[in-house]
Specification:
- 27% of the residues lie in helices and 33% in strands.
- It is α+β, with helices and mostly antiparallel strands.
- Strands 1, 2, 3, 4, 5 and 6 form a six-stranded antiparallel β-sheet that branches.
- The longest helix is centred in the middle third of the chain and has 14 residues.
- About 15% of the residues have low confidence.
């Protein structure tokens, strides 16, 4: 499946870490946007890694493109220090917010 992943990271170090993780899975199409061709396993791994890399005030959004249904997505919050990250899932959007 093809994904478009965009981000707004407030910390330079975290931004480089997120960009590095994304560059391992896809190509940069704009300064804060990557296009990735991912298997289901790779997408789960990537978004788990991004969730851990995101911090307070950061946003990472992923859009999955489906030939049959157009754009699909899921939403989740990044890890919190207490481990009780709130999760929101639907069929449209993957969003990680700090």
């Amino acid at each position: 499946m093809r994904y478009l992943v965009i981000y707004d990271i407030t910390d330079e170090r975290r931004m480089r870490r997120v960009a590095g993780k994304l560059s391992a899975y896809g190509i940069r199409v704009q300064k804060s946007a990557f296009e990735c061709e991912l298997t289901e396993t790779d997408s789960l791994r990537l978004f788990r890694e991004l969730k851990k890399a995101a911090g307070a005030g950061d946003s990472i959004a992923g859009y999955r493109f489906s030939a049959k249904y157009g754009i699909k997505s899921v939403a989740a919050e990044p890890e919190t220090s207490g481990g009780n990250a709130s999760k929101r899932q639907n069929s449209r959007f993957i969003a990680l917010r700090g």
